[in-house]
Amino acid sequence: MQLYHMFMDSYGTCQQTSFFHVPEEGYLVHAKGSGQIYQTLRCSLRFRTQVDKQLCVKFNSFRIDDCSVHFKVFQENQPVNFGRQPSEDCLYRHYGCQDSPQTVCSTDSYLTLQLHKERIDAQGYSLQLTVEPKAIQNEIIMSLWFIVGVIVAVVVVIVVLAVVIVICCRKDRHHGRVFKQKKNKPRSGGQGRLLEAGPEPSAPPLDPGLEMHQHIVTSYGQFPNEPPPPYEPKPEPV
Description:
Blueprint: E1 4-7, H1 11-14, E2 20-21, E3 27-32, E4 42-48, E5 53-64, E6 69-74, E7 91-95, E8 103-105, E9 110-117, E10 125-135, H2 138-175, H3 189-197, H4 208-219
Parallel strand pairs: 1-3, 2-4
Antiparallel strand pairs: 3-10, 4-9, 5-8, 5-10, 6-7, 6-9
Keywords: Membrane, Transmembrane, Transmembrane helix
Transmembrane segments: 144-169
Region (Disordered): 178-238
């Protein structure tokens, strides 16, 4: 399998204003500090592949002895402004001195590699890496399906609980219904009529004042109301 070689110490390569389309064979990227004057402080290489694939960077060798040298991996927002260096907001990975990266893969079909030197004459670094396309990892797809499955399960549980609550409420209403009491048939004859009509009301009590008046009239009724006639002596017998 033939690999396409690329050098991050080349001024012309670092000034590329478009994407490098990564073939199935991939790219073999080299960088080695030589302190030459034509090198740049920042060298950014932008790669892309098919939309249904991701890009993976395999570090075949990685050595940075000078801590003023940094190697960064970006996932830039689209569309990319080729007139500027990648924004730190899109930083995906950052490697420096004493790091030993192995492999890193993007989450989409775009990836940017940058070699950043704080001094133009920095020499204490040497790296070689392979950039190649790869089918999207099954872990990502499984994660998406897992999230969808959890959402569906939650919805199903909510629906089942709602149905159970409705059924229970209907059962409670059925058992709590009040039935009308059946009326007894009236008895025949006079007893039945008496029960239907009920007892007759008694006479109202007399007024206390009226009772006293009747008592007075009854007690003194033998005396007339008019005064007696004048006294006349009896005539003596002749």
